[in-house]
Amino acid sequence: MSDTKQGLTYAQSGVDIEAGNALVERIKPAAKATARPGVMAGLGGFGALFDPRAAGYDDPVLVAATDGVGTKLRLAIDTGRLDGVGVDLVAMCVNDLVCQGAEPLFFLDYFATGRLEADRAARVIEGIAEGCRRSGTALIGGETAEMPGMYAGDDFDLAGFAVGAMERGRELPAHVAEGDVLLGLGSDGVHSNGFSLVRKVVERSGLDWSDASPFDADGSLGATLLAPTRLYVKPALQAIRAGGVHALAHITGGGLTENLPRILPEGLGARIELSSWSLPPVFSWLSEAGGIDRDEMLTTFNCGIGMVVVVAQDRAESIATLLHEAGERVVALGMVLPGEGVRYEGAFA
Fold it and tell me: Where are the alpha helices (DSSP H) in the chain?
């Protein structure tokens, strides 16, 4: 008796190679637009090549960072608003690199999903390319993984990997001292940390993502919460090259409370005057709707300050002017003093 069973194909198991190939072709122009000096070979090979010396470095030290977007992805998937999370992914990595004193040079992404839908994936990856373009970083490779059974429905996951360089001996933090001034750079909303708590607050409020935002008249709640993470790379590099910058802290998970001590030497702490800036409306709403106290807010969210630049006292005014002219909202937060950790004084303006 003959065997009537038909042979299986990879497509029948849920993996569409043609969709993957179509995605690569679609994103090639976006990746090409991020090219910068140093790129030797990008998309298409088994690996990507980059020459730091061609990027202008004589004795480069490489710096690497990796990160994701966290549960902000849940909101992006549920609302179908996918264009900004790619920018978030880049920002979470390159903003960390510049805190070491490094210029981000190139970026790779990892996109994993249960079923590859080329248009949705392209919107995410084109956002990654936009983040790279805005931070002067080349998108030179990545991986798109279609894994049936691992992710349900339209769910996907993202990870990013950035490599930067600096000349040997230029690493930060360096020379942080008592009396250094803390300059805060304004954030563009919640950025990409604290969204597990954000989602709990929204659930408690009884609102839907499509409802009008209670803190922004120009959009829905979901759209306003999905504002992409701000990219600080180019202004921060300008400040570093101008001289007088001793350290930078990217205010991510842990807020000001946990991230500032990471860049302070033993025996030194930070004093922050809360009245030096106004709590942005999104954070006021989260605090009120969730019954979240001040200390929890400052430990979970950026509270309107996405990056802190620690500068020598005699350079504070000129660096603040430089950052302002580069498009940043600059606030003198406080200073470095003897002690440990972060001490808050006053109340939000």
Answer: 17-32, 72-79, 85-99, 118-134, 195-205, 221-225, 233-242, 255-259, 281-290, 294-300, 316-325
